[in-house]
């Protein structure tokens, strides 16, 4: 069984097109959690082009008061501002990504060997309150990469599935990407790391991913589920993704 965490960035980005409070990030968080999502994910960026700091505080309050069993996963680069935000809301999971501030979206994992000392200090800092720490990981990191990731003290990796998601019209390339993801996931499990996954996963490509990469703990899905929700509604979209994930 793979748990579903719904990434709400696309909802916030749609809201931010106007100086208006809808669609409501908190309101749709309620919808996805009522539909059985295990939690919600946000990736606040310095320019607040989608998730705002106020959203993070509002969601933390929602989960604490109405959904105490749900998980809050906050993604981001470990800047001083990010540390302050994590300390303020204390999410159950922190996913560290190596993004530059102006990146449109995450597009690569950490260099675990080259950034090992840096990541070790960051992981130690963030795990002070018993939080789970996940590190964004390239699909072809392999045994050497995940061994270095494990050495930082992290609990999980999050497989970057963007290259696989981009193969929607190239089945041969998709098979290649799935093989790389499967190898890295096996290596992560072998060294004692949990495995999350996220980026461009959809109802169409999830079944093959689930078959090729067993043992994924959690999938964080935002763009695809939001696109499907435009057609079927968020409640139905969440239930459809949960069915594919077996959760």
Structure overview:
With 247 residues, this protein is of the alpha/beta class. It contains eleven helices and eight strands. The protein has helices at 9-15, 25-34, 53-66, 80-89, 116-126, 142-151, 162-165, 171-190, 206-212, 223-232, 234-245; strands at residues 3-7, 39-42, 71-76, 93-96, 132-137, 156-160, 194-198, 218-221. It starts with a strand and ends with a helix.
Which CATH top level class fits?
Answer: Alpha Beta
Number of strands: 8
Radius of gyration: 17 Å
Structural class: alpha/beta
User: What's the overall average pLDDT, rounded?
Assistant: 96
The coarse silhouette is globular
Q: Kindly, what is the distance between the CA atoms of the first and last residues, rounded to a whole number of angstroms?
A: 5 Å
- Strand residues, percent: 15-25%
Q: Count the domains.
A: 1
- Determine the number of helices (DSSP H or I, runs of at least 4 residues): 11
Could you name the CATH homologous superfamily?
Aldolase class I
Largest sheet composition = 8 strands, parallel, barrel
Oligomer: single chain
Strand numbers in spatial order across the main sheet: 1-2-3-4-5-6-7-8
Poorly predicted runs = none
Q: Per CATH, which architecture?
A: Alpha-Beta Barrel
Helix content: 40-55%
CATH topology: TIM Barrel
The string of secondary-structure elements, in order, is EHHEHEHEHEHEHHEHEHH
């Amino acid at each position: 069984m793979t748990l579903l965490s719904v990434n709400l960035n696309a909802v916030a980005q749609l809201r931010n097109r106007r100086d208006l409070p809808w669609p409501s990030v908190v309101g749709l968080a309620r919808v996805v959690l009522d539909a059985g999502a295990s939690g919600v994910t946000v990736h606040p960026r310095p320019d607040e082009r989608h998730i705002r700091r106020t959203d993070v505080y509002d969601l933390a309050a929602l989960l604490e008061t109405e959904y105490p069993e749900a998980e809050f996963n906050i993604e981001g680069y470990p800047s001083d501002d990010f540390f302050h935000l994590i300390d303020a809301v204390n999410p159950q999971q922190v996913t560290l990504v190596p993004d530059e501030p102006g990146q449109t979206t995450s597009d690569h994992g950490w260099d675990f060997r080259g950034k090992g000392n840096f990541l070790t200090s960051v992981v130690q800092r963030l795990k002070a309150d018993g939080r789970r720490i996940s590190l964004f990981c390239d699909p072809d990191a392999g045994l050497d990469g995940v061994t270095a990731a494990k050495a930082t003290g992290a609990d999980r990796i999050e497989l970057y599935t963007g290259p696989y998601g981009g193969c929607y019209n190239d089945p041969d390339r998709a098979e290649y990407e799935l093989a790389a993801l499967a190898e890295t996931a096996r290596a992560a499990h072998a060294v004692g790391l949990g495995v999350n996954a996220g980026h461009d996963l959809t109802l169409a490509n999830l079944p093959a991913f689930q078959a090729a990469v067993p043992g994924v703990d959690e999938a964080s899905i935002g763009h695809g589920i939001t696109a499907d929700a435009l057609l079927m509604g968020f409640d139905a979209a969440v239930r459809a993704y949960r069915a594919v994930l077996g959760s």
